[in-house]
Amino acid sequence: MDRQGSSNSAEASTGHTVPAGLAVARRVLDGIAWLCMLAAGLGLVFIVASFGWLVYGRYILNNTPTWIEQLSLLLIIYIVCLGTAVGVHRHTHLSIDFVRDGLPRWPRRILHVLADLMVVAFGVIMLWQGWVLTLTNADHQLPMLGVTASWRAAPLVLCGALIVVFTVFDFIERLFTNPGELH
Questions:
Q1: In the chain, which ranges are continuous DSSP H helix?
Q2: Which member of 27, 68, 119, 142 has the lowest number of beta carbons within 10 Å of its beta carbon?
Q3: Residue 4 placed within a domain
Q4: Range of the domain at 35
Q5: Which of 84, 116, 85 minimizes the C-alpha distance to 100?
Q6: Is the Cβ–Cβ distance between 133 and 148 less than 8 Å?
Q7: Which has the closest alpha carbon to 152: 70, 89, 84?
Q8: What are the tens digits of pLDDT across the range 57-85?
Q9: Angle, nearest 10°, between helix axes 150-177 and 20-59?
Q10: Residues 87-120: tens digit of each pLDDT
Q11: How far is residue 143's CA from residue 52's CA, in Å, rounded to a whole number?
Q12: Where in the cell does this protein reside (predicted)?
């Protein structure tokens, strides 16, 4: 069943009928984006709480928990990468599209497709280079944490993959929700 309660198709904001599979995929991707933001939010809450513990340990107990700084650096990478992927999904990244939107229909469509291709290319490169970095750092340990340095590069792989999936889905969805326009 889709957003409108119909089991066969969804009605997009443009009034075009969308295959039910796209509506289901949209809900799944929205759920993935929500889980990414939940994980990023929980990571941020943990960082704030752990720095409270760091200050307490350093100034009250006179025993600084040194692992907190390394873990916080690791968590920041996850928070930023997850937030970046969700920003692509929600279209909340900075974009200067008034030039494109002021053009006639065909140049506007071409520029939108080119922008999507560049975002997908960026995601693929991020995924690929993140994977290479993950494999390269498999033998190195993060100080004070006891895990491999691959944990620092793994979010790049996840972020790149999510950027590709979100962008490709948005392109496909635009083809069905507004066939005359790719925007």
A1: 20-59, 67-90, 98-101, 105-136, 150-177
A2: 27
A3: no
A4: 9-177
A5: 116
A6: no
A7: 70
A8: 989 999 988 899 999 999 999 999 999 99
A9: 150
A10: 999 999 888 788 888 889 889 889 889 999 999 9
A11: 21
A12: Cell inner membrane
d(CA 72, CA 51) in angstroms, rounded, equals: 9
- Residue 135's nearest CA partner among 154, 121, 162 is 154
Task: Tell whether 51 is covered by a domain.
Answer: yes
Q: Supply the pLDDT for residue 95.
A: 80
pLDDT value, residue 7:
39
For residue 1, tell me if it sits in a domain.
Answer: no
List the Cα angle 126/108/27 in 5-degree steps: 55
Considering its fold, how many domains does the chain have in total?
A: 1
Closest C-alpha among 97, 84, 47, 81 to residue 67: 47
Q: Which of the 8 DSSP states describes residue 9?
A: E
Is residue 135 within 8 A of residue 150, CB to CB? The reply is yes
Instruction: List the structure tokens of 183.
Output: 């925007």
Looking at the predicted structure, is the pLDDT value of residue 4 above 70?
no
**Which residues are registered as beta bridge partners of 17?**
11
The verdict on residue 182 lying in a domain is no
